[in-house]
Amino acid sequence: MIRAGVVGGTGYTGVELLRILALHTEVEVAVVTSRADAGTRVDAVYPSLRGMIDAMFSVPELESLATCDVVFFATPNGTAMLMAEGLLARGVKVIDLSADFRIKDASEWSAWYGMEHACPELIAEAVYGLPELNRDAIKSAQLIACPGCYPTAVQLGFLPLIEAGLIDTDFLIADVKSGVSGAGRKAELATLMSETGESFKAYAVKGHRHLPEISQGLTMIAGKPVGLTFVPHLTPMIRGIHATLYARLNDTKGGSSTLAELQVLYEARYVQEFFVDVLPQGVHPDTRNVRGSNNCQMSIFQPQGSETLVILSVIDNLVKGAAGQAVQNMNLMFGFKEEAGLKVIALYP
Amino acid sequence: MIRAGVVGGTGYTGVELLRILALHTEVEVAVVTSRADAGTRVDAVYPSLRGMIDAMFSVPELESLATCDVVFFATPNGTAMLMAEGLLARGVKVIDLSADFRIKDASEWSAWYGMEHACPELIAEAVYGLPELNRDAIKSAQLIACPGCYPTAVQLGFLPLIEAGLIDTDFLIADVKSGVSGAGRKAELATLMSETGESFKAYAVKGHRHLPEISQGLTMIAGKPVGLTFVPHLTPMIRGIHATLYARLNDTKGGSSTLAELQVLYEARYVQEFFVDVLPQGVHPDTRNVRGSNNCQMSIFQPQGSETLVILSVIDNLVKGAAGQAVQNMNLMFGFKEEAGLKVIALYP
Amino acid sequence: MIRAGVVGGTGYTGVELLRILALHTEVEVAVVTSRADAGTRVDAVYPSLRGMIDAMFSVPELESLATCDVVFFATPNGTAMLMAEGLLARGVKVIDLSADFRIKDASEWSAWYGMEHACPELIAEAVYGLPELNRDAIKSAQLIACPGCYPTAVQLGFLPLIEAGLIDTDFLIADVKSGVSGAGRKAELATLMSETGESFKAYAVKGHRHLPEISQGLTMIAGKPVGLTFVPHLTPMIRGIHATLYARLNDTKGGSSTLAELQVLYEARYVQEFFVDVLPQGVHPDTRNVRGSNNCQMSIFQPQGSETLVILSVIDNLVKGAAGQAVQNMNLMFGFKEEAGLKVIALYP
Amino acid sequence: MIRAGVVGGTGYTGVELLRILALHTEVEVAVVTSRADAGTRVDAVYPSLRGMIDAMFSVPELESLATCDVVFFATPNGTAMLMAEGLLARGVKVIDLSADFRIKDASEWSAWYGMEHACPELIAEAVYGLPELNRDAIKSAQLIACPGCYPTAVQLGFLPLIEAGLIDTDFLIADVKSGVSGAGRKAELATLMSETGESFKAYAVKGHRHLPEISQGLTMIAGKPVGLTFVPHLTPMIRGIHATLYARLNDTKGGSSTLAELQVLYEARYVQEFFVDVLPQGVHPDTRNVRGSNNCQMSIFQPQGSETLVILSVIDNLVKGAAGQAVQNMNLMFGFKEEAGLKVIALYP
Predict the structure, then answer these.
(1) Confidence check: pLDDT of D252 > 90
(2) What span, in angstroms and rounded, lies between the C-alpha atoms of A133 and A129?
(3) Cα end-to-end span (Å), chain C
(4) Its pTM surpasses 0.95
């Protein structure tokens, strides 16, 4: 039984962490912080947790957090980088669900996130927490940078093709659709039900903060810079991400690939992965089939037998795209079963 | 480890049973039947169950079902009454999620359900599976009639007031709203997204089949016939029932009751119940806070201090209103912990 | 062609007014104010109006507004009462969509709205703008207090029964469900899609500001104080109000009424009304059938032949419940056809 | 005043036609047919039309339809081709909203639609009813093949770039998202609210029937065969299509284009079009802003200044994607103002 702290417990990724950790048999939720709600019972803010979490929100303080074995940051960008160093110095493992440690180039990070990085010396040490790519490094990490929701769905989808060197990485397209919970639990006009219900739109087409993160990840896999067009969309539902990925088979290795071979490639790449599920050929994934679960379901198509491949990849943005993946990382870091606390079935319908 | 059979595994209550039973540590899902999908893998119809249920749909047959310790009927009305007798004779416990054994008066049942009852002699033996009311009888029952979704929310809401004799039972009003999954998984115009999305309506105001069931239940609690107006509504969401109940304090015992006393009454009545949660005074329940869980959350109000009380009671229609309550009954019948397999947290947001 | 001003053009009732007025052949939208968006083109904030409104938001000022023939206030409560007097003095007719002039008793208004009334001397002069009740007074009014959305649906539903003296007005119940646009266009946690989507709840059960307004209206119709329990709910859709009303036939005149007679009563009461539509017996109204239109559709039921009647009444909260009714009032005040600019068909599906 | 007939009045495109035609001042709705609902009042099936359409559904018969000046087919594929010839022979203009006359190659049509074409000799005569492309031909046409919903959004989006010869037409991508009303008003499991609500998925990735229609259209514009990957998706809302289009600037003419020039190109191409609206640079279209209207709103982006362009194009699938465009064609054929009956404002919120 380890002691866990959750900093920023009142956002959607925070409460999702609590939902998962409360039933995790190896973890005690010891500290839950929230500046705004300090002194309030957690289950007064979240009645869904009544009877499951017996805790109060407290102000985030190094002393109390340092009593934990692991601290999760479910905070807005710019908070974890202020506290991580102190916790690591006290021997506490840190799992950051925000973007503070995702981008290896501090100046690029600053350009996209609009602030100086407070702790650039830790960036190199941080392990990018995508277990399907970095499992070994995660096991021995002290500081994890959990991937963003879009980057998780997109990277898992492209991974087998890029690793196998089959596609032209100069011209990748990721058309991705997200439920509105991805925008967080903030009082904003743009995510009111009256503004987002019954409507569909793209946003941030000029450039979204997840673009450099995805590019960095795909570049690392490819071993060379990639050309990516990434268009995020808002779809009128609460949870779920659906990535529709387009890539062209290259002339060198890709040209002769058949769809059957590509299917085998995907299945082989993920056969050992508990949370990545390659669907049978011809089946389309649906976000509802992973809602509330840590699963990524995907499939690969080659419409009309052309050279352009279509990969479909779905996750729950709050689970595999955030809190679930964070717990998966924690399980690896502490030697628990990787699926501990995460063996749940999606809520259908 | 007991062997369970699910008859009618392709409706929403059927797949919800599978979602719960697949993770229940005391149960093996041994048989899942569906005439329409016999020969198909369960997870081909329900990709959410991939990796969790390794079974095929089979044709419902007494021989295979009789190898189970318990058989659930998640079938349309009129099926369980044809097979229950044979299973009971073979020593198999039967839990019926349909309406076949809910109404004690067979002719009234026929009038509402439009068919002769095929097995009236079993009706008396059937125990109405509302654990908060009938726990002891359930423990020793061989045949359970699981309550309907509306009846569960309404009866739990009125229960403490009627038991305490505080309200005028001649004039009860239950204004209840349901998500569309309550209409089942059937190809019908009326429950298309284009017909039910972004719209709200009442239906069956002249008389809904759950009216005699609720009346029978409240009559039993009151010890005398009750007068109930029940209006069901369809609300544009998938899961959830919200009952808004109105009752007038009577002149005899009710008149002097204060809201504080009523709050105490409710809390005391349900303090031992794992799945019924009386919210603090002034808090409104919200269906999202029980979505996917077996919980009923409720609260009691006395607007403007008048003699008319308002009780709010919410459940997930597919869990506490169907599959979850069925498993709760099974747990009682087999001596498992009552919350076994049901200790989950609602999916918020 | 008259000149109209809209104060508070950036809320949902404001933009709905613009949607209606832009196509009204007797009206020119001359001034649209918004402190927050002053200097911005209206269609930059509302791209749905591109090509239809060629105007900029301006700061609200008496001078410019006084050039109008009529000024609508689509403002938060507490604004119209500051400006109405000045406009009326300049001969401008005022139609207030907020609550400032709805309650005849200024101290009761203060108690519910939490502020002193800035202009109590105008309250008596204000005509309550429910045309089906007050048509003649509206025609000659200078100042209109437009009814709230809930009060419109509830009063129209109860009206025929109370006028005819058939029901016990001591025990009226209004269980009303609203889409989230009723909460307005404000950055608030509670109306985020992630908070209100896929969920249903009651709110303000202890007392909602529309309670005194409805009670005042019903009292005026009944000629004596009424006892009303009013429970508002939030339903996961954007537009629409569904009122489910309960009333008991009284012993004096109501007792012998048959449902057929009640149907005749309703049809007779509203046969001349362009915007109130009594559905054939047995048909349930559905909010989608009035979405975007100024119609109220309703029906009356007598479940199980009991003495408790059920009336169902639906409107679009932003049209008949706000902007449409305001324009209907304007039409009456200026002698236009009552349905001018309002002859549209609901958007189904 | 012309007489119009609507064959197949009980689908969503049929009722949408009625919604538009009922208020069209140049048109009398003379005949509305439906085999299933013959003998029923139209407004009994569609209460939204009460007071607006005084008609009964009749069986489709040449004699009665031949009394009309124009007949719309809002029927499943395969019906219009059986009746068009007879009507044309009687001098009745025919506007087909189904796919019967969209594909110029009858054998390709048969391959995609799974039936022999009953009337191949009329295909050549049929004019493809996309006014922004074929206005002159439409004006003198007797038979119009209305474009599909996806093809309308996609072709309007690509049109300026292809006409100007700026992009590599061998590698076009159309990632398109549709509301569920596009699936029609049919009792089907797949479009139940419980199946499509709160979920997002792609479908028919291997090949959708709108692919040959779009390819044919783009090929005609380009003057040579194009390579198109088209992926349709279902998004949890009722109305609306959002096309996200990807194209690469070619080396010949496209290479030196700046975004500002492309913006000018789009604005110039559509400046005369009443129903196509190019948004200011940097603004994202949102389907809600065209809901219920005949508008197409679009914008063009060049993310990160790369050679890959992104065009966003939104329509209401039932209006500009079906019934509205059909009426726009009718207006052209009969010499009415092109926007007659179609000058409405989108329903926001």
Answers:
(1) no
(2) 8
(3) 34
(4) yes
DSSP summary character for residue D330: H
Residues in chain D closer than 8 A to A199 (CB atoms)? 237, 240, 286-288, 291
Q: What is the pLDDT of residues A167-199, one digit of tens each?
A: 999 999 999 999 999 999 999 999 999 999 999
Q: How far is CA C233 from the centre of its chain?
A: 17
Please indicate whether residue B146 is annotated as part of the active site. no
- Report yes or no: C82 and C119 within 8 Å, Cβ to Cβ: yes
Q: Please answer whether residues D285 and D314 qualify as being in contact, where contact means their C-beta atoms are separated by less than 8 angstroms.
A: yes
Find the CB nearest A236 among D237, D282, D310. Answer: D237
pLDDT, average across residues D164-173: 97
pLDDT digit string, tens, across residues C30-63: 999 999 999 999 999 999 999 999 999 999 999 9
Q: Does A280 contact D at CB distance below 8 Å?
A: no
Q: Which residues of A touch C186 (CB under 8 A)?
A: 189
Per-residue pLDDT, D333? 98
pLDDT for B192 equals 97
Written in H, E and C, the secondary structure of chain A is CEEEEEECCCCHHHHHHHHHHCCCCCEEEEEEECCCCCCCEHHHHCHHHCCCCCCEEECCCHHHHCCCCEEEECCCCCCHHHHHHHHHHCCCEEEECCCCCCCCCHHHHHHHHCCCCCCHHHCCCCEECCHHHHHHHHHCCCEEECCCHHHHHHHHHHHHHHHCCCECCCCEEEEEEECHHHHCCCCCHHHEHHHHCCCCEECCCCCCCHHHHHHHHHHHHHCCCCCEEEEEEECCCCCCEEEEEEEEECCCCCCCCCHHHHHHHHHHHHCCCCCEEECCCCCCCEHHHHCCCCCEEEEEECHHHCCEEEEEEEECCCHHHHHHHHHHHHHHHHCCCCCCCCCCCCCCC
**Position C254 confidence tier, pLDDT thresholds 50, 70, 90:** confident
Spatial contact of B42 and B55, defined as CB atoms under 8 Å apart = yes
Give me the mean pLDDT over the B133-140 stretch: 98
* pLDDT interval class at C125 (50, 70, 90): very high
Residue C256 has pLDDT above 90, yes or no: no
Q: Which residue of C has its CA nearest to D50?
A: C277
**Domain architecture of chain C: domains with CATH:** 2-125 (3.40.50.720), 150-316 (3.30.360.10)
Estimate the crossing angle of helix B149-163 against helix B259-270, to 10 degrees.
Answer: 120
Backbone angles phi, psi at D347, to 5 degrees: -85, 95
- Binary contact (A303, D229; C-beta < 8 A): yes
Any bridge partners for residue B27, and if so which? B2
* Predicted pLDDT of residue C349: 97
* Chains with 3 or more CB pairs under 8 A to chain A: B, C, D
DSSP three-state, residue D310: strand
Q: What pLDDT shows up at residue C255?
A: 81
Closest CA to D22 of D323, D335, D337: D323
Residues in chain C within 8 Å Cβ distance of D288: 48
Give me the total of CB pairs closer than 8 Å, taking one residue from chain C and one from chain D: 80
> Does residue C185 sit at the A interface (CB-CB below 8 Å)?
yes
Question: Which residues make beta-bridge pairs with A56?
Answer: A41
- Reported as a pLDDT band with limits 50, 70 and 90, residue A256 is confident
Q: pLDDT tens digits, residue range A273-318?
A: 999 999 999 999 999 999 999 999 999 999 999 999 999 999 999 9
**Any chain C CB within 8 A of the CB of D335?**
no
Indicate if the pLDDT at residue A252 is higher than 90. no
Residues in A touching C195 (Cβ below 8 Å): 185, 193
